[in-house]
Amino acid sequence: MSKLITCEEAVKKVKSGSRIMVGGFGLVGSPLSLIAALAQSEVKDLEIISNNLGEPGRGLGVLVRQKQVKKAIGSYFTSNPEVVKAYQDKELEVELLPQGTMSEAIRAGGAGLGGFYTPVSVGTKIAENKEERTLNGKKYVFQEPLKANFSLIKAKKADQLGNLIYNKSARNFNPMMATAADVVIAEVDEIVEVGQISPEEIVTPHLYVDYIVVKGGK
Amino acid sequence: MSKLITCEEAVKKVKSGSRIMVGGFGLVGSPLSLIAALAQSEVKDLEIISNNLGEPGRGLGVLVRQKQVKKAIGSYFTSNPEVVKAYQDKELEVELLPQGTMSEAIRAGGAGLGGFYTPVSVGTKIAENKEERTLNGKKYVFQEPLKANFSLIKAKKADQLGNLIYNKSARNFNPMMATAADVVIAEVDEIVEVGQISPEEIVTPHLYVDYIVVKGGK
Amino acid sequence: MNVKQYIAARAAKELKDGDIVNLGIGIPTLVADYIPSDVKVFLHSENGILGVGPTPDPEHIDQNLVNAGKLPVTVLEGSSYFDSASSFAMIRGGHVSVSILGVLQIDAIGRIANWAVPGKSVLGVGGAMDLLEGSKKIIVTTMHTSNQGESKIVNELTYPITSERIVDLIITDLAVFAVKEDGLHLIELSPGVSLEEVQLKTDAPFLIAKSFNKGKEVTA
Amino acid sequence: MNVKQYIAARAAKELKDGDIVNLGIGIPTLVADYIPSDVKVFLHSENGILGVGPTPDPEHIDQNLVNAGKLPVTVLEGSSYFDSASSFAMIRGGHVSVSILGVLQIDAIGRIANWAVPGKSVLGVGGAMDLLEGSKKIIVTTMHTSNQGESKIVNELTYPITSERIVDLIITDLAVFAVKEDGLHLIELSPGVSLEEVQLKTDAPFLIAKSFNKGKEVTA
Questions:
Q1: Measured between beta carbons, which residues in chain B are less than 8 angstroms from residue D163?
Q2: What DSSP element (H or E) covers B152?
Q3: Closest-approach residue (CA) in chain C for A162
Q4: Mean pLDDT of B9-16
Q5: Which residues of B fall within a CB distance of 8 Å from A130?
Q6: Predicted local confidence at residue A218, as pLDDT
Q7: Which member of D81, D128, D129 has the closest CB to residue A169?
Q8: Does the pLDDT of residue D219 top 80, yes or no?
Q9: Which of A103, A104, A113, A143 to mutate to test the interface with B (most CBs of B within 10 A)?
Q10: Residue C44 and residue A207: Cβ atoms within 8 Å?
Q11: Domain membership flag for residue A9
Q12: Hey, CA dihedral for A84, D102, D93, D18, is it positive or negative?
């Protein structure tokens, strides 16, 4: 019942048209080996939920360059000029969410909620087609939860069961994404024996993790 | 700028009629020294948000016995027969929430949300006076966030800044309550130097904690 | 083995390797003692533990380590602790494979009542509604009749409903029912129990599966 | 000290001991270098850090430790790491004392635009809206005019608004404005700057505080 597989085995599970969450804030905390394996595969028409889309030719930027991405949901794509170009050429759809709304929507997806009201973006372009509601005298915007077919996340260490801990600011979106997809694949720097990570310290309990790959592995 | 005060100083901040969140699952993870100090004080008409109301004459049960509590919001009060009696004698108002809805409502309060939709309690007595809404074909109940004037929480260790870690299943409601009140007072077993708790391991960052008292202190 | 232990042992046979399992108070708690040695499951406790272990000896009780029934427990290697909001996020989000729950009543389409008694002050709900809503599979373990001899499997609930969610399997001291779209299906009789006895003690109508187990042996 | 450093140093004077401070990209990032030594603040970075320290030497860069501008940072003793949902819960929940932000425009009642440019594809918003909505106090640091010499303090925003939230203080290279219910109040001129220059370069109307600081000295 080992969860350990290779990157190649991992990306074989992904079909064209899948909706995939990918962890990371820029390239920090991004599962780069899994992304590289995806870039080697034939899958296309992907819908990616990720804060950014990498950099030109790096991380998710490779998938954009290879036209494997149909739609992206995230908070900040401007840092990759190739994303801007693909959008202008109508090769890529983009849905923009404030970073806090996005991270909360992923959490809500994993937590089985039907949606929530956030005060963020009220009165802005982002909220134009969203339900607005006044609660206790304050205006809020309704946000639906986000879920996906797959989450590709990056952690520092996994134990053999799949309990995860992260590395400094590389934690970012990974713990929420671990909760919000049908299949969760974690890329880790290191796998340790069960019991090597303290129960108090575990950030992502193993029930959220379906498969583990080791960074740099094939 | 030390956050360390005595239990007596802490409860002096609490006025009659205050709304107070109190951590703990039963007596486990409950700030018993702070509660004892409250029981020594003259405050009354308190509105308590807590999963339970202690046991007869123990923990929050003392405040119930002394008629200091006007209203309780929580998930399970049946385990203290004196609560049942006070309710039947119309000395105590009770608002019952499913445990998951309650913990999520406290989190939402601390996270600045206007409310959320949960599928839990749809079609039950608990949902009788609540807004029901169908989202993507599934029925949900609207839940407002919970906030309070004070949170009295219990942690294992604080550092001098107020960063907190908890002890096993005594964590329970404490981390959320730390986020959802105007004034947060943490009772801890031990205070350590800054730097003694790893940045990866801190559960409640110090920005949430206003005051620290040591367990068993006056 | 008394009847409650029998029910618990029968329920344990439903668990699969790798399952994340939440056990309610009462008979469900006993299930932990009957999990086959070749099946590794992980016990989730809604007060914030994944990986609950056996009850400790009295001298090894840790006051900070209790299960959702507020009883002292231990944890196994690979366990983790988390706050209540995270714990119920797991439950509501569908990350618990199986919850085994006690009940007051079950109706003819498989909905249950297990949190409140009519005519009494309703002052406790706990995590029952969350578990029922969110768990992938719900197994009910219960005595077939109440202490007063009334059937717990009824046409219509007279106790307040816990959730609109229909449970998956009902295990009593007398029989096992699978719940399907067309209602309750008797799939098994306990050893020494006759179909007539089950019919007599079950108020709700039920279908009889073509080939059901008569007196399947259940051992620890 | 160049003008951007001057603005940053002036903003740093607004910080109080114990403040939780979030610094935006650009001039706000420079504020960290000018915090008075007797004022201890804690820098929050929305990608999941409380307790950001100075920029590391090139040989001490840790790839896993960056700020919200994706630049390498260090952390101080007492720092903590958390996930993005927790980080924005802090922000939205009002647990950040002060955010210092750059802007494209500020209107006459103190609302800002700082995330999108008209006519260009809008492909980035980041955490700007969250910080503006949730922070207890908002300080804007900006050059008074754009590179094209146009006033950034305008009657009506021509750039998309970031939030309906009104900011608290505006610090430019020329002046400082407090934002109150009746609009912008000029409270300070930078050294060597005349009231006439500020009037000339400010499109929005503003009130002049009874006693404002003329050329207050700001040193690091």
A1: none
A2: strand B148-159
A3: C78
A4: 97
A5: none
A6: 64
A7: D81
A8: no
A9: A113
A10: yes
A11: no
A12: positive
pLDDT in tens, C65-124: 999 999 999 999 999 999 999 999 999 999 999 999 999 999 999 999 999 999 888 899
Which pLDDT score is estimated for C122?
A: 86
Q: Is residue B77 part of a domain?
A: yes
ipTM of the complex: 0.97
Domains defined for chain D, CATH in brackets: 3-214 (3.40.1080.10)
Number of neighbouring beta carbons within 10 Å of residue B40: 14
Range of the domain at A50: 15-214
Q: Is the pTM of this model over 0.90?
A: yes
pLDDT-based confidence at D1, cuts 50/70/90? confident
Q: Provide the pLDDT for residue B218.
A: 64
In the residue annotation, C59 being an active-site residue is answered as: no
CATH number at residue A52: 3.40.1080.10
Residues from chain C contacting residue B26 (CB–CB below 8 Å): 66, 70
pLDDT of residue B216: 87
Nearest CB among B114, B138, B168 relative to A114 is that of B138
Q: Which residues of A touch D133 (CB under 8 A)?
A: 119-120, 122
**pLDDT (tens digit per residue) in A49-58:** 999 999 999 9
Measured N-to-C along each axis, helices B99-110 and C84-92 cross at an angle, to the nearest 10 degrees, of 120
Rounded to a whole number of angstroms, the distance from the CA of A210 to the nearest CA of chain B is 24
SS3 category, B109: helix
State the total domains in chain A.
Answer: 1
Kindly state whether residue B4 falls inside one of the protein's structural domains.
Answer: no
Write the single-letter amino acid at C33. Answer: D
DSSP string, chain A: ---B--HHHHHHTPPTT-EEEE--BTTBT--HHHHHHHHHS---SEEEE-S---BTTBTHHHHHHTT-EEEEEESB-TT-HHHHHHHHTTS-EEEE--HHHHHHHHHHHHTT--EEEESTTTTSGGGTTS-EEEETTEEEEEE----EEEEEEEEEEEETT--EE--GGG-TTHHHHTTSEEEEEEEEEEEE-TTSS-TTT-SB-GGG-SEEEETT--
Mutate which of A147, A160, A161 to test chain C, going by most C C-beta atoms within 10 A? A161
Q: State which residues of chain C have pLDDT below 70.
A: 213-220
Write the residue in C48, C126, C160 that is nearest to B76 by C-beta.
Answer: C126
Query: What is the arithmetic mean of pLDDT over A15-38?
Result: 98
Annotate B100-130 with b (16+ C-beta within 10 A) or e (fewer): bbbbbbbbbbbbbbbbbbbbbbbbbebbeeb
Q: Provide the shortest C-alpha distance from residue B201 to chain A (in Å).
A: 5
Query: Could you read off the pLDDT of A105-159 as tens digits, one per residue?
Result: 999 999 999 999 999 999 999 999 999 999 999 999 999 999 999 999 999 999 9
Could you tell me if residue B157 is inside a domain? yes
State which residue of chain A sits closest to D68, comparing Cα positions. A25
Flag whether residue C124 sits within 8 Å of chain B, measured between CB atoms.
yes
D-chain CB neighbours of B209 within 8 Å are none
Which residue of B78, B120, B126, B176 is the best one to mutate when testing the C interface, meaning the one whose CB has the most C CBs within 10 A? B120
pLDDT tens by residue, D142-186: 999 999 999 999 999 999 999 999 999 999 999 999 999 999 999
Q: Please name the member of D18, D77, D82 whose beta carbon is closest to the beta carbon of B1.
A: D18
Q: What is the mean pLDDT of residues D43-66?
A: 97
The residue of chain D nearest to residue A117, with distances taken between CA atoms, is D92
Residues 134 through 163 of chain C touching chain B, CB cutoff 8 Å: 134, 160-163
